[in-house]
Every structure is written in structure tokens, then in C-alpha cells.
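Mods, move this if it's the wrong board.
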Amino acid sequence: MLPDVDDLLGTIRVVALPLVTRFRGIAVREAALLEGPEGWTEFAPFPEYDDAESARWLAAAIEYGWQRPPAARRTEITVNATVPAVPAAEVPGVLARFPGCRTAKVKVAEPGSSLDDDVARVRAARDVLGPEGRIRVDANAAWNVDEAERALRLLSPADLEYAEQPCSTVEELVDLRRRTKDLRVPIAADESIRRSADPHRAGAAVDVVIVKAAPLGGIESALGLARMLSRPAVVSSALDTSVGLGMGAHLAAALPRLPYDCGLGTAALLAADVTDDPLRPEGGVIPVRRVVPSLALLDRWSADAERTAWWADRLRRTHAALAG
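Not the wrong board. C-alpha cells:
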């Protein structure tokens, strides 16, 4: 059942958390936290997402706050480090924020960063992790096929675990896989899964699928999709607070198989969080648990009145979309 919108608004707390370094072009991550009968939950679609897409995030928030998560198959989740598009010299400092992590996801193809920068960043990550570490790259669909092929040929000496969303369309991903078959670099899909009207088509075209609880409408929806896609799955986050990361951890805990480290260590990229006990990696893992925010930290990092009103209005609109 869909809770009444006034009940949701009665508990809303909007926070604006600074990042350690810019990520996805932002320096502050905003999120709306809600308290349901099962605990605190998070509604935090990125500002540029429209109401139809954001409604899935609200459905996920309601599910997590108003229903118990599925049975867990594991009590902790092995996670990867996440390296933003920083200069190569800063990579060791970033990786130091992820103690014990043996996998790094390195952002590439970001505006203002050249392919030479990407190669240097990946090489720096390999130098820190050593030959036994695992490195994956994420282009967020920024390359066309020619650019992606050239980039993967230059990056492949780093022994890539996989390349995440190198191109935007399924047709491009299929073409890229064909062109780079000799490199043996698996291709993973993220945006082609979570932002597609037909995620099954994308899943059939790649080697690995990225599943995220909030963008896919909740834990149960993401679990069902992972089952139907029949591909190795990686659970990842969307730069969530520790409350939202708890949702992702419960999704990862419920999957039958978890062959890859998950992208759920991103609390390490936040300069502040909503809890005194954040879900930051320790020994390369995070525990599977719900997070209870600190009221003092909710007050400390509360968004201003204008942004709080913006999020409340957004919640009303997305609630109406779900109700409809």
C-alpha cells in the first residue's frame, strides 16, 4: 500500500552533504530521508531526473521503510573503491579512504578529462593495488564506439576486470563487444539497465549487469530483474548516504550469487554523513544493516529552506505519479 503523502512529508529531513572531491560534477550530495515503520529510508534521485524516473526511487524508499527486506544470504558485502576523475597524483589518497578494498572502479571519459588522463589515472590505481588487485572502469555512456574501442585498447594493459557502460545504446555495446573480442574485456551495463524501458534487451547484450536498488524501484524489483537477466550482477550505489547504502547492502545480501565486489563503499567519498556509524569500508567490506541517522547530524547538515521545499514538492509530484 502507498503511504499517504502527508505521512511521508511529516518525517522528511533533507540533507546537503559535502563530498571529499567532486563526483559526477557535483560537490554536494542532497538527499531526502524519511522514517517508516521499519526504519529510516532514503529518496535521492539526482536533480536532473524527471518525475517518472524519480518515482521509481520513491517506490524503493517506501518499500525499504515500510517493508522488511528479503532474507539475507550473507552478513557483509565485499566492496570496491571508487576513484573519481581526479589527477593521477591524487589516486593514492583516494584509495586510502577505502581500507582493505582490493578492487577499484575508476571513472573515465568525464568532461574536462582527456584519454591520456584516464590512462594515467588507471595506471596509478594499478600501481597502488599491485598485480593482484582488480580494476574496472566506468565511462557513464560517454564514448561512441570508435572512442570506446580506442580507449579500451589503451586501457586494457591494466588488466581490466570489466568496462562499465562505455557507450550509451545497446547497439553500440554489441558492436563494441564484437570489435574488442580479442581484448577479452567484459562489458557491463548500468544506464542501459536502469534507465531503459527494455532492460532485458540490454542484459542480453553484455557480460555483466549493474543493479541498483533505488533506481530500479526497490530491492524486490532489482532482485527480480537480476534473476531474469541471468548475468553476473554487481550491486552498486548512487552516491547515497549511509541510509541508502543500507538498502543496497540488503539487496546484495539477498542475491543468490555475488561474484564481483559491489559498488557500495561510496560513503568514503562523503566528507559528512547522517550517522555517527557510517557504512564505510573496513577490511574491504561493509556490514548488512539498517542505519539510524543521528538527529544532531540531520540538523548539522540540513539543507536550507529553499532546497527543503524543493524536495518536498518533488516528493509530492512523484507520489502522485506512483498513485496514478
